[in-house]
Protein backbone atom coordinates (compact mmCIF):
# COMPACT_ATOMS: atom_id res chain seq x y z
CA UNK A 1 0.00 0.00 0.00
CA UNK A 2 1.21 3.53 -0.77
CA UNK A 3 1.75 6.15 1.89
CA UNK A 4 -1.10 8.55 2.55
CA UNK A 5 -2.17 11.26 4.94
CA UNK A 6 -4.85 10.63 7.51
CA UNK A 7 -7.37 13.17 8.66
CA UNK A 8 -9.86 12.50 11.45
CA UNK A 9 -12.86 14.63 10.58
CA UNK A 10 -14.75 15.83 13.65
CA UNK A 11 -17.83 17.25 11.95
CA UNK A 12 -19.91 16.70 8.83
CA UNK A 13 -18.95 20.19 7.64
CA UNK A 14 -15.26 19.38 7.96
CA UNK A 15 -15.67 16.15 6.00
CA UNK A 16 -17.83 17.79 3.33
CA UNK A 17 -15.30 20.61 2.95
CA UNK A 18 -12.25 18.34 2.87
CA UNK A 19 -11.96 18.47 -0.90
CA UNK A 20 -12.71 14.78 -1.19
CA UNK A 21 -13.58 13.32 -4.54
CA UNK A 22 -15.45 10.11 -5.23
CA UNK A 23 -13.57 6.82 -5.11
CA UNK A 24 -14.96 6.16 -8.60
CA UNK A 25 -13.21 9.17 -10.09
CA UNK A 26 -10.05 8.60 -8.03
CA UNK A 27 -9.76 5.15 -9.63
CA UNK A 28 -9.69 6.44 -13.19
CA UNK A 29 -6.30 6.33 -14.89
CA UNK A 30 -5.25 7.16 -18.46
CA UNK A 31 -4.28 4.17 -20.60
CA UNK A 32 -0.65 3.42 -19.87
CA UNK A 33 -0.66 5.93 -17.01
CA UNK A 34 -1.03 5.72 -13.27
CA UNK A 35 -4.03 6.15 -11.09
CA UNK A 36 -4.31 9.55 -9.40
CA UNK A 37 -1.76 10.14 -6.62
CA UNK A 38 -3.45 13.35 -5.55
CA UNK A 39 -6.99 12.37 -4.64
CA UNK A 40 -8.65 12.91 -1.29
CA UNK A 41 -11.22 10.29 -0.35
CA UNK A 42 -13.50 9.75 2.64
CA UNK A 43 -13.52 6.53 4.64
CA UNK A 44 -16.40 5.09 6.67
CA UNK A 45 -15.73 1.52 7.84
CA UNK A 46 -12.90 1.20 5.34
CA UNK A 47 -13.79 -2.33 4.25
CA UNK A 48 -13.87 -1.61 0.53
CA UNK A 49 -11.62 1.45 0.53
CA UNK A 50 -8.64 -0.29 2.13
CA UNK A 51 -9.09 -3.33 -0.13
CA UNK A 52 -8.84 -1.07 -3.16
CA UNK A 53 -5.78 0.63 -1.71
CA UNK A 54 -4.07 -2.66 -0.93
CA UNK A 55 -4.69 -3.83 -4.48
CA UNK A 56 -3.11 -0.62 -5.81
CA UNK A 57 -6.34 0.33 -7.57
CA UNK A 58 -6.69 3.44 -5.46
CA UNK A 59 -3.75 5.57 -4.30
CA UNK A 60 -5.16 8.60 -2.50
CA UNK A 61 -2.99 11.36 -1.10
CA UNK A 62 -5.27 11.76 1.88
CA UNK A 63 -7.91 9.64 3.62
CA UNK A 64 -10.58 11.49 5.60
CA UNK A 65 -11.88 9.28 8.39
CA UNK A 66 -15.56 9.76 9.24
CA UNK A 67 -15.64 7.55 12.31
CA UNK A 68 -15.00 10.41 14.72
CA UNK A 69 -18.05 12.40 13.66
CA UNK A 70 -20.68 12.31 16.40
CA UNK A 71 -24.29 11.49 15.62
CA UNK A 72 -23.80 9.70 12.32
CA UNK A 73 -24.30 6.27 13.85
CA UNK A 74 -27.91 6.69 14.98
CA UNK A 75 -31.23 5.25 13.88
CA UNK A 76 -34.03 7.72 14.65
CA UNK A 77 -37.78 7.47 14.18
CA UNK A 78 -38.86 10.90 13.02
CA UNK A 79 -42.11 12.76 13.71
CA UNK A 80 -43.26 12.43 10.08
CA UNK A 81 -43.22 8.66 10.42
CA UNK A 82 -40.01 8.05 8.50
CA UNK A 83 -36.86 6.50 9.92
CA UNK A 84 -33.51 8.23 9.54
CA UNK A 85 -30.46 5.98 9.43
CA UNK A 86 -27.04 7.56 9.86
CA UNK A 87 -24.40 6.84 7.24
CA UNK A 88 -22.10 5.35 9.89
CA UNK A 89 -24.64 2.86 11.26
CA UNK A 90 -23.05 -0.60 11.15
CA UNK A 91 -24.62 -3.40 9.12
CA UNK A 92 -24.67 -5.44 12.34
CA UNK A 93 -26.63 -2.65 14.05
CA UNK A 94 -29.11 -2.43 11.16
CA UNK A 95 -29.66 -6.18 11.36
CA UNK A 96 -30.49 -6.13 15.06
CA UNK A 97 -32.18 -2.74 15.56
CA UNK A 98 -35.77 -3.21 16.87
CA UNK A 99 -37.23 -0.41 14.72
CA UNK A 100 -35.63 -1.74 11.53
CA UNK A 101 -36.57 -5.31 12.39
CA UNK A 102 -40.19 -4.35 12.98
CA UNK A 103 -40.75 -1.85 10.18
CA UNK A 104 -38.21 -2.78 7.50
CA UNK A 105 -37.57 -6.48 8.01
CA UNK A 106 -36.17 -6.91 4.49
CA UNK A 107 -33.50 -4.31 5.22
CA UNK A 108 -32.56 -6.00 8.50
CA UNK A 109 -32.38 -9.33 6.69
CA UNK A 110 -30.31 -7.92 3.82
CA UNK A 111 -27.83 -6.25 6.18
CA UNK A 112 -27.70 -9.29 8.45
CA UNK A 113 -26.90 -11.67 5.61
CA UNK A 114 -24.17 -9.52 4.10
CA UNK A 115 -20.56 -10.68 4.14
CA UNK A 116 -19.42 -12.19 7.47
CA UNK A 117 -19.92 -11.23 11.15
CA UNK A 118 -16.49 -9.58 11.34
CA UNK A 119 -17.24 -7.39 8.35
CA UNK A 120 -20.78 -6.54 9.50
CA UNK A 121 -19.31 -5.27 12.76
CA UNK A 122 -17.14 -2.74 10.92
CA UNK A 123 -18.93 -2.04 7.62
CA UNK A 124 -21.33 0.90 7.58
CA UNK A 125 -24.51 1.46 5.61
CA UNK A 126 -22.99 4.52 3.93
CA UNK A 127 -19.92 2.61 2.86
CA UNK A 128 -22.04 -0.32 1.77
CA UNK A 129 -24.06 1.89 -0.58
CA UNK A 130 -20.92 3.56 -1.95
CA UNK A 131 -18.74 0.47 -2.39
CA UNK A 132 -17.34 -0.11 -5.85
CA UNK A 133 -18.55 -2.97 -8.02
CA UNK A 134 -17.13 -6.45 -7.52
CA UNK A 135 -16.52 -7.12 -11.23
CA UNK A 136 -13.32 -9.17 -11.36
CA UNK A 137 -11.95 -7.24 -14.33
CA UNK A 138 -12.60 -3.95 -12.55
CA UNK A 139 -10.93 -5.32 -9.41
CA UNK A 140 -7.91 -6.65 -11.30
CA UNK A 141 -4.84 -4.44 -11.64
CA UNK A 142 -4.04 -6.50 -14.76
CA UNK A 143 -7.14 -5.27 -16.61
CA UNK A 144 -7.38 -1.57 -17.40
CA UNK A 145 -11.08 -1.65 -18.13
CA UNK A 146 -13.46 1.00 -19.38
CA UNK A 147 -14.67 1.73 -15.86
CA UNK A 148 -11.10 2.70 -14.87
CA UNK A 149 -10.42 4.87 -17.91
CA UNK A 150 -9.46 2.11 -20.33
CA UNK A 151 -10.84 1.31 -23.73
CA UNK A 152 -12.81 -1.88 -23.30
CA UNK A 153 -15.14 -3.73 -20.99
CA UNK A 154 -13.45 -7.12 -20.62
CA UNK A 155 -16.72 -8.73 -19.54
CA UNK A 156 -17.89 -8.58 -23.15
CA UNK A 157 -16.25 -11.58 -24.76
CA UNK A 158 -14.66 -12.55 -21.45
CA UNK A 159 -15.93 -14.49 -18.47
CA UNK A 160 -19.11 -12.66 -17.56
CA UNK A 161 -20.92 -15.24 -15.45
CA UNK A 162 -21.53 -12.74 -12.64
CA UNK A 163 -22.27 -9.68 -14.75
CA UNK A 164 -25.31 -7.60 -15.67
CA UNK A 165 -27.76 -8.85 -18.27
CA UNK A 166 -29.76 -5.60 -18.43
CA UNK A 167 -28.59 -2.07 -19.24
CA UNK A 168 -24.96 -3.07 -19.60
CA UNK A 169 -23.96 -1.10 -22.69
CA UNK A 170 -20.23 -0.36 -22.43
CA UNK A 171 -19.82 -1.75 -18.91
CA UNK A 172 -21.47 -4.76 -17.32
CA UNK A 173 -20.88 -4.06 -13.63
CA UNK A 174 -23.46 -4.93 -11.01
CA UNK A 175 -23.85 -2.95 -7.81
CA UNK A 176 -22.98 -5.36 -5.00
CA UNK A 177 -25.11 -3.96 -2.15
CA UNK A 178 -27.95 -6.19 -0.97
CA UNK A 179 -29.09 -3.54 1.46
CA UNK A 180 -29.49 -1.10 -1.45
CA UNK A 181 -32.00 -3.46 -3.07
CA UNK A 182 -34.12 -3.47 0.08
CA UNK A 183 -33.83 0.31 0.46
CA UNK A 184 -34.90 0.95 -3.13
CA UNK A 185 -37.88 -1.34 -2.58
CA UNK A 186 -38.86 0.66 0.52
CA UNK A 187 -38.58 3.96 -1.41
CA UNK A 188 -35.65 5.27 0.61
CA UNK A 189 -33.88 8.52 -0.11
CA UNK A 190 -30.32 9.59 0.63
CA UNK A 191 -29.35 12.95 2.04
CA UNK A 192 -26.05 14.32 0.79
CA UNK A 193 -23.96 16.91 2.63
CA UNK A 194 -22.34 19.14 0.02
CA UNK A 195 -19.09 21.13 0.30
CA UNK A 196 -20.99 24.45 0.38
CA UNK A 197 -23.00 23.28 3.37
CA UNK A 198 -26.15 22.64 1.36
CA UNK A 199 -28.15 19.44 1.71
CA UNK A 200 -29.52 17.46 -1.18
CA UNK A 201 -32.08 14.69 -0.94
CA UNK A 202 -32.20 12.12 -3.75
CA UNK A 203 -34.40 9.03 -4.04
CA UNK A 204 -32.02 6.07 -3.87
CA UNK A 205 -33.19 4.72 -7.24
CA UNK A 206 -31.96 7.96 -8.82
CA UNK A 207 -28.82 8.06 -6.69
CA UNK A 208 -27.57 4.90 -8.38
CA UNK A 209 -26.74 5.52 -12.01
CA UNK A 210 -26.25 3.18 -14.94
CA UNK A 211 -22.61 2.75 -15.93
CA UNK A 212 -23.11 4.79 -19.11
CA UNK A 213 -24.53 7.83 -17.30
CA UNK A 214 -22.19 10.70 -16.50
CA UNK A 215 -23.64 12.65 -13.59
CA UNK A 216 -21.62 15.73 -14.57
CA UNK A 217 -22.69 15.74 -18.20
CA UNK B 1 19.08 -43.75 17.17
CA UNK B 2 19.78 -46.19 14.34
CA UNK B 3 17.15 -48.60 13.09
CA UNK B 4 19.09 -51.66 14.26
CA UNK B 5 19.32 -50.18 17.75
CA UNK B 6 15.58 -49.52 17.82
CA UNK B 7 14.92 -53.02 16.58
CA UNK B 8 17.14 -54.42 19.31
CA UNK B 9 15.32 -52.39 21.94
CA UNK B 10 11.95 -53.44 20.58
CA UNK B 11 13.13 -57.07 20.36
CA UNK B 12 12.28 -57.44 16.72
CA UNK B 13 14.03 -57.91 13.43
CA UNK B 14 15.30 -55.06 11.29
CA UNK B 15 12.88 -55.79 8.48
CA UNK B 16 9.84 -55.64 10.79
CA UNK B 17 9.03 -59.13 9.67
CA UNK B 18 7.41 -59.91 12.96
CA UNK B 19 5.11 -56.94 12.77
CA UNK B 20 4.25 -56.46 9.17
CA UNK B 21 1.42 -58.64 7.99
CA UNK B 22 0.65 -58.58 4.30
CA UNK B 23 -3.08 -58.95 3.63
CA UNK B 24 -3.66 -58.45 7.31
CA UNK B 25 -7.15 -58.69 8.69
CA UNK B 26 -8.13 -55.02 8.60
CA UNK B 27 -5.67 -53.69 6.03
CA UNK B 28 -7.16 -51.42 3.39
CA UNK B 29 -4.10 -51.55 1.19
CA UNK B 30 -1.69 -54.38 0.70
CA UNK B 31 1.63 -52.61 0.77
CA UNK B 32 0.78 -49.08 1.81
CA UNK B 33 -1.74 -47.21 3.86
CA UNK B 34 -5.33 -47.00 2.68
CA UNK B 35 -8.54 -45.21 3.37
CA UNK B 36 -12.17 -45.23 2.37
CA UNK B 37 -14.74 -42.50 2.69
CA UNK B 38 -18.50 -42.28 2.45
CA UNK B 39 -20.51 -39.13 1.80
CA UNK B 40 -24.15 -38.28 2.28
CA UNK B 41 -25.38 -35.31 0.25
CA UNK B 42 -28.56 -33.37 -0.40
CA UNK B 43 -28.94 -31.93 -3.89
CA UNK B 44 -31.45 -29.16 -4.53
CA UNK B 45 -32.55 -29.89 -8.09
CA UNK B 46 -34.11 -26.43 -8.43
CA UNK B 47 -31.02 -24.40 -7.50
CA UNK B 48 -28.35 -27.02 -8.20
CA UNK B 49 -26.84 -26.54 -4.76
CA UNK B 50 -25.09 -29.60 -3.31
CA UNK B 51 -24.94 -29.79 0.44
CA UNK B 52 -22.74 -32.42 2.05
CA UNK B 53 -24.55 -33.62 5.16
CA UNK B 54 -22.14 -36.21 6.48
CA UNK B 55 -18.80 -37.81 5.70
CA UNK B 56 -17.48 -41.00 7.24
CA UNK B 57 -13.74 -41.36 6.82
CA UNK B 58 -12.04 -44.66 7.59
CA UNK B 59 -8.30 -44.34 7.59
CA UNK B 60 -5.55 -46.90 7.87
CA UNK B 61 -2.53 -45.15 9.27
CA UNK B 62 -0.19 -47.54 10.99
CA UNK B 63 0.19 -46.94 14.70
CA UNK B 64 -1.63 -43.74 15.72
CA UNK B 65 0.90 -41.71 17.69
CA UNK B 66 -1.52 -38.94 18.63
CA UNK B 67 -5.09 -40.07 17.89
CA UNK B 68 -6.66 -36.66 18.54
CA UNK B 69 -4.29 -34.91 16.16
CA UNK B 70 -4.70 -37.69 13.66
CA UNK B 71 -8.50 -37.37 13.66
CA UNK B 72 -8.09 -33.63 13.23
CA UNK B 73 -5.81 -34.22 10.26
CA UNK B 74 -8.38 -36.49 8.65
CA UNK B 75 -11.10 -33.89 9.26
CA UNK B 76 -8.89 -31.31 7.59
CA UNK B 77 -8.40 -33.60 4.62
CA UNK B 78 -12.14 -34.12 4.30
CA UNK B 79 -12.79 -30.37 4.40
CA UNK B 80 -10.16 -29.73 1.76
CA UNK B 81 -11.66 -32.43 -0.45
CA UNK B 82 -15.17 -31.07 0.05
CA UNK B 83 -13.92 -27.60 -0.79
CA UNK B 84 -12.44 -28.53 -4.14
CA UNK B 85 -15.28 -30.91 -4.89
CA UNK B 86 -17.87 -28.15 -4.68
CA UNK B 87 -16.29 -24.72 -4.73
CA UNK B 88 -12.67 -24.18 -5.61
CA UNK B 89 -12.13 -23.12 -9.18
CA UNK B 90 -9.24 -21.29 -10.73
CA UNK B 91 -10.84 -19.07 -13.34
CA UNK B 92 -8.52 -17.88 -16.09
CA UNK B 93 -9.51 -15.18 -18.56
CA UNK B 94 -9.24 -16.81 -21.95
CA UNK B 95 -8.14 -13.61 -23.70
CA UNK B 96 -5.67 -12.07 -21.26
CA UNK B 97 -4.49 -15.24 -19.52
CA UNK B 98 -4.84 -13.67 -16.10
CA UNK B 99 -6.48 -15.47 -13.20
CA UNK B 100 -9.72 -13.62 -12.47
CA UNK B 101 -10.39 -14.87 -8.96
CA UNK B 102 -6.96 -14.72 -7.38
CA UNK B 103 -8.19 -13.29 -4.10
CA UNK B 104 -10.16 -14.52 -1.12
CA UNK B 105 -13.23 -12.57 -2.17
CA UNK B 106 -13.70 -14.18 -5.56
CA UNK B 107 -12.10 -17.59 -4.91
CA UNK B 108 -14.82 -19.64 -3.27
CA UNK B 109 -14.04 -22.30 -0.71
CA UNK B 110 -15.85 -24.18 2.01
CA UNK B 111 -16.43 -22.36 5.28
CA UNK B 112 -18.01 -23.28 8.58
CA UNK B 113 -21.51 -23.23 7.09
CA UNK B 114 -20.55 -25.88 4.53
CA UNK B 115 -18.88 -28.15 7.05
CA UNK B 116 -20.65 -31.52 7.33
CA UNK B 117 -20.71 -33.96 10.20
CA UNK B 118 -17.38 -35.75 9.90
CA UNK B 119 -16.91 -39.13 11.49
CA UNK B 120 -13.33 -40.42 11.61
CA UNK B 121 -12.59 -44.09 12.17
CA UNK B 122 -8.95 -45.07 12.57
CA UNK B 123 -7.77 -48.56 11.77
CA UNK B 124 -4.78 -49.51 13.82
CA UNK B 125 -3.02 -51.61 11.31
CA UNK B 126 0.58 -51.79 12.44
CA UNK B 127 2.40 -52.10 9.17
CA UNK B 128 3.94 -48.70 8.95
CA UNK B 129 7.40 -50.01 8.02
CA UNK B 130 9.05 -47.51 10.30
CA UNK B 131 10.72 -47.81 13.67
CA UNK B 132 7.40 -46.95 15.29
CA UNK B 133 4.99 -48.69 12.90
CA UNK B 134 3.49 -45.27 12.22
CA UNK B 135 2.68 -43.82 8.83
CA UNK B 136 2.67 -40.21 7.84
CA UNK B 137 -0.85 -39.12 6.97
CA UNK B 138 -1.05 -35.90 5.05
CA UNK B 139 -2.61 -36.20 1.63
CA UNK B 140 -4.16 -39.68 2.09
CA UNK B 141 -6.93 -38.22 4.25
CA UNK B 142 -7.89 -35.97 1.37
CA UNK B 143 -7.85 -38.27 -1.64
CA UNK B 144 -11.18 -40.04 -1.21
CA UNK B 145 -13.45 -37.13 -0.30
CA UNK B 146 -14.25 -35.60 -3.69
CA UNK B 147 -14.92 -39.00 -5.35
CA UNK B 148 -17.15 -39.96 -2.42
CA UNK B 149 -19.14 -36.74 -2.82
CA UNK B 150 -19.33 -37.20 -6.59
CA UNK B 151 -20.62 -40.74 -6.09
CA UNK B 152 -23.22 -39.47 -3.65
CA UNK B 153 -24.33 -36.77 -6.07
CA UNK B 154 -24.68 -39.43 -8.78
CA UNK B 155 -26.68 -41.54 -6.39
CA UNK B 156 -28.91 -38.58 -5.60
CA UNK B 157 -29.65 -37.25 -9.10
CA UNK B 158 -28.82 -40.20 -11.36
CA UNK B 159 -26.43 -38.22 -13.54
CA UNK B 160 -22.65 -38.35 -13.45
CA UNK B 161 -20.71 -35.12 -13.03
CA UNK B 162 -17.28 -35.62 -14.51
CA UNK B 163 -15.70 -32.28 -13.66
CA UNK B 164 -14.89 -30.49 -10.44
CA UNK B 165 -16.08 -28.33 -8.86
CA UNK B 166 -19.68 -29.52 -8.85
CA UNK B 167 -21.12 -26.03 -8.87
CA UNK B 168 -24.86 -25.29 -8.97
CA UNK B 169 -24.49 -24.42 -12.67
CA UNK B 170 -22.73 -27.74 -13.37
CA UNK B 171 -25.43 -29.66 -11.51
CA UNK B 172 -28.25 -27.86 -13.37
CA UNK B 173 -26.46 -28.43 -16.68
CA UNK B 174 -26.09 -32.14 -15.88
CA UNK B 175 -29.80 -32.26 -15.10
CA UNK B 176 -30.57 -30.58 -18.43
CA UNK B 177 -32.14 -27.58 -16.70
CA UNK B 178 -29.78 -25.04 -18.28
CA UNK B 179 -27.47 -25.02 -21.26
CA UNK B 180 -23.83 -25.76 -20.65
CA UNK B 181 -22.57 -22.45 -22.00
CA UNK B 182 -19.41 -22.06 -23.98
Spatial strand sequence of the major β-sheet of chain A = 1-3-2
CATH topology of chain B: Aldehyde Oxidoreductase, domain 4
What CATH architecture label of chain B applies?
2-Layer Sandwich
Instruction: Output the radius of gyration of chain A.
Output: 18 Å
**Which fold name corresponds to the CATH topology of the domain at 75-128 and 176-207 in chain A?**
Uridine Diphospho-n-acetylenolpyruvylglucosamine Reductase, domain 3
Shape call of chain A: globular
| Uncertain ranges of chain A | none
Question: Structural class given helices, strands, pairing of chain B?
Answer: alpha+beta
Radius of gyration of chain B: 21 Å
In CATH terms, the superfamily of chain B is: Aldehyde oxidase/xanthine dehydrogenase, molybdopterin binding domain
Q: Into which percentage range does the β-strand content of chain A fall?
A: 5-15%
- Class by helix and strand content of chain A? alpha/beta
Q: What form of chain B results from the Cα inertia axes?
A: elongated
Count of alpha and pi helical runs of chain B = 5
The first-level CATH class name of the domain at 75-128 and 176-207 in chain A: Alpha Beta
Largest interface, counted with CB-CB under 8 A? A-B, 14 and 12 residues
Low-confidence stretches of chain B: 18-23
Largest sheet of chain B: 3 strands, mixed
> How many beta strands in the DSSP annotation of chain B?
3
Describe this structure in words.
The complex is a heterodimer of chains A (217) and B (182). By secondary structure, chain A is of the alpha/beta class. Among the domains of chain A are: 5-68, no CATH class; 75-128 and 176-207, Uridine Diphospho-n-acetylenolpyruvylglucosamine Reductase, domain 3 (2-Layer Sandwich). Helices cover 27% and strands 13% of the residues of chain A. Chain A has ten helices and seven strands. Chain A has a three-stranded parallel β-sheet with strand order 1-3-2, with no helix packed on it. A two-stranded antiparallel ribbon of chain A has the order 4-5. In chain A, strands 6-7 form a two-stranded antiparallel sheet. The two termini of chain A are 33 Å apart. The relative contact order of chain A is 0.13. Chain B is of the alpha+beta class and 182 residues long. Chain B has one domain: Aldehyde oxidase/xanthine dehydrogenase, molybdopterin binding domain (Aldehyde Oxidoreductase, domain 4). Helices cover 28% and strands 15% of the residues of chain B. Chain B has five helices and three strands, in the order αββαβααα. Chain B has helices at residues 3-9, 67-86, 140-143, 145-157, 168-174; strands spanning 35-43, 50-60, 117-123. Chain B has a three-stranded mixed β-sheet with strand order 1-2-3. In chain B, strand 2, helix 2 (67-86) and strand 3 form a beta-alpha-beta unit. In chain B, helix 2 (67-86) crosses helix 4. The radius of gyration of chain B is 21 Å and the shape is elongated. The termini of chain B are far apart. Residues 18-23 of chain B have low confidence and may be disordered. The chains are: A alpha/beta (217), B alpha+beta (182).
